[in-house]
Amino acid sequence: MEINPILQNVLAPPVLFFLIGAISVLFKSDLEIPAPLPKLFSLYLLLAIGFKGGIEIQKSGFTNQVLPTLSAAILMSLLIPLIGFLILRFKFDVFNSAAIAAAYGSISAVTFISAESFLESQKIAFDGFMVGALALMESPAIIVGLLLVKFAAPKNRPKSRKMHLSAILHESLLNGSVYLLLSSLIVGFLTASSNPSGIEKMEPFTGQLFYGAECFFLLDMGIVAAQRLPRLKNAGSFLIGFAIFMPLFNAFIGVFVARFLSLGPGNALLFVVLCASASYLAVPAAMRMTVPEAKSSYYISTTLGLTFPFNIVLGIPIYMSLVNTIIPLSSL
User: Which UniProt keywords are present, listed alphabetically (predicted)?
Assistant: First the structure.
């Protein structure tokens, strides 16, 4: 594996701002981001990548590669939490196993954005329809996690905590991040189809501001991730090992699926990153509300305090090396 891509990734402004945020906590700086701003930047990033993704899908059209890739993305988001659940059951009860497995079956939009920035820095092309995979992979893992609880939880669970399928589907498909991402995707598609001048008007907002907003958001994520690190002591060595092993394992499966789909290097990396990332927003929100028996410190601390920084700093260049090794250009 070449070391240069790792150094280039670590020295990229978004990663550096993430590290600066983490270091500020470790050295007890009084740096603080006002609470509403991270939420605002999170919504902005989802809107921007959804809008740009919709434009790119309209431009590329629904080719023979688009639908199989989107189908494979949904399949992976159904399969990964099942594998994670089976592994976690060796150590945890049904509730914690299902909640943690759902977090690792879902995705991190910020990790996806960082992978896009990495590809742009390496001048590797990728297609906008991969944003569709991002949008489609967030909800299925939540559904699987909640269904695992529904069918595997002890029969004497209080009636007040029993879940109805309609509530599960509503929470999974209409949570704020999924709704905004899918809506922005449709707006971008319709704008590119019927009102191209609207793209130029939106460009300063969704294009030129994007990189700076990403850096600022990652600065806050660095602070939050470092604040979560002490809680990892309570997670135990099994869960800490799982937080590193599971992304690598999922990436390994993802790269072979990408090869089967004949994805190019750029699209393959984005697909692998989606498989290897873990949710620290949508899934925790759903699990806190519907599975209160699960300890939030487990699935939030590991995804945000360990898996997220691992993927941002080291994972992405490692996955790129994996893609280049298993999907040589001659096979495309």
Answer: Membrane, Transmembrane, Transmembrane helix
